[in-house]
Amino acid sequence: MQIEKIKESDATILKIVGEIDLHGSPALRAELQECVAEKVPVLLVDFSGVEYIDSSGLATFIEYVRSGSAHQGKVALFGLKKKVRTIFDLVRLNELFILADSAEAARAALANK
User: Fold this and answer.
1) How far apart are the first and last CA of the chain?
2) Which of 14, 34, 76, 90 has CA atoms 20 to 30 A from the CA of 44?
3) What is the pLDDT along the chain (113 residues), one digit of tens a residue?
4) pTM of the predicted model as reported, rounded to 2 decimal places
5) H or E element that contains 4
């Protein structure tokens, strides 16, 4: 798994490529904890390069939501492939996360939240 962090004026974008599983989750957790430490106000996560996510990956994102809420940090995920989106839907995390088709749609959804 590879993670690229892009800082923009209105948001930080994490572009993830690969599988978010037991082996990749620690690196993702470290990156997300850094975002919490920096008090990133808006985090957009680009899932367009993600083929698979397991329970450890889901738990890592849930942990970020809890930690980020201390500074009112907002997060949205975008570009999820059908197989990955189905996993979020099955465990009802589509109720916790904003899941959008594009970065623009994610920004718009966060602005209306």
Assistant:
1) 30
2) 90
3) 999 999 998 899 999 999 999 999 999 999 999 999 999 999 999 999 999 999 999 999 999 999 988 888 899 999 999 999 999 999 999 999 999 999 999 999 998 87
4) 0.94
5) strand 2-7
